[in-house]
């Protein structure tokens, strides 16, 4: 009922499609020069460059015209790639530009403009860019507006910050009167919209092994005097940064070999029904197959039964349960083992204590399954949400007790889309980048997504 009311209000405010993000700021000007300055064209001279998310090829063509030895444009839409090829031919740089859906060619410079707020899996996209860079190579990133910008909802921002004031369901319903592509959530709309914030992007680049050469948050001109560390999420127009892949060195190789012998813990957190146990079991099976090392799975239900049967569900008892789980994980990690924890772990302080305990002996990766409450409640494989709604279960996380969203998650996965195999694959790729696993050729996550059962059918 509320969704329908909000949708009607939106239709009254905006019966047609808003045009506030028309790109007029770059009209008649070089977008690359505006975003990165003349330094970019000095960096690409004589170099192999990849334009990640190239669209119709306009930036790739400009790079070729400014001295790049070879430019490879990557995009997932074949129709867009065809237009990019035609545009390169018209510009006379067809021999310098190649457009495709993927490449194995290494590049000296990778450029990503307006990609990170749209891709369905930003962490995987960043990993792919990392793989495509040569040692010492440079990654130039720019995107905006971020999610908390007045128009960060793009089409959904029918007026400033409308995308934050109205529910996702109402905004999608309003959009259905303008576009009929069947999108049900933000990340299904044409081009995608992943609600990328500045803080989330900073978390993404942390731990990837890239050196941050520069990171700038350009303020909205009219709000520049209010722009500071506390308000920047709401007053930043564009984020731009330059990251560098470290030069390969003997010391680095030695450190990587030492890292591979260390134990580590993968710690899943999320609401009941978000898919923790399902993905944890899949990850455990894949790790045992790949590594040949023992893998210990500490599932929340089993830990409760065998280690914490006398505990209730007060905050104090919940924290005690998580700290016991963390202690076992740290002991296994200390002796070079692999531990996977699949627990709700609703409170930030306890999760941070576990991280600290495990990291004193080895690696720790916090995986937050960000599946929304509505989806988890619809799945309800054990009927717990129904009982909690009926008042039969007290202190139930998400209903009558809080869940504190982790701000320090190393990976964030929304299980509404994809399969358990694809989610496990993403985690394996991350473990490889962090040096916890030996680098090896991986399966294509798109193929895994296509051939396996959706997680909706099996999540628990």
Features of the shown structure:
460 residues; alpha/beta; Rossmann fold; 2 domains; disordered C terminus
Summarize the structure.
The chain is an alpha/beta fold and 460 residues long.
Can you describe this structure?
With 460 residues, this protein is α/β, with parallel strands linked by helices. The chain has 2 domains: 25-147 and 192-248, 3-Layer(aba) Sandwich (Rossmann fold), CATH 3.40.50; 254-457, 3-Layer(aba) Sandwich (Rossmann fold), CATH 3.40.50. It is 39% helix and 17% strand. It has 19 helices and 12 strands. The protein has helices at 2-13, 31-36, 39-44, 58-65, 78-91, 122-132, 162-165, 168-175, 198-205, 232-235, 250-260, 276-291, 300-306, 315-334, 348-359, 373-379, 384-389, 420-433, 445-451; strands at residues 48-52, 70-74, 97-100, 107-113, 133-143, 211-219, 236-244, 264-269, 295-299, 338-342, 363-369, 411-413. Helix 4 (58-65) links the parallel strand 1 and strand 2. It is globular and about 75 Å long.
Structural class, from secondary structure content? alpha/beta
CATH topology of the largest domain: Rossmann fold
Number of domains: 2
- Output the radius of gyration: 23 Å
Major sheet, described briefly? 7 strands, mixed
**Overall pLDDT score:** 87
Number of helices: 19
N- and C-termini, Cα separation: 29 Å
**Unreliable sequence segments:** 441-460
How much of the sequence is in beta strands? 15-25%
Per-chain topology:
Blueprint: H1 2-13, H2 31-36, H3 39-44, E1 48-52, H4 58-65, E2 70-74, H5 78-91, E3 97-100, E4 107-113, H6 122-132, E5 133-143, H7 162-165, H8 168-175, H9 198-205, E6 211-219, H10 232-235, E7 236-244, H11 250-260, E8 264-269, H12 276-291, E9 295-299, H13 300-306, H14 315-334, E10 338-342, H15 348-359, E11 363-369, H16 373-379, H17 384-389, E12 411-413, H18 420-433, H19 445-451
Parallel strand pairs: 1-2, 1-4, 2-3, 4-5, 8-10, 8-11, 9-10, 11-12
Antiparallel strand pairs: 5-7, 6-7
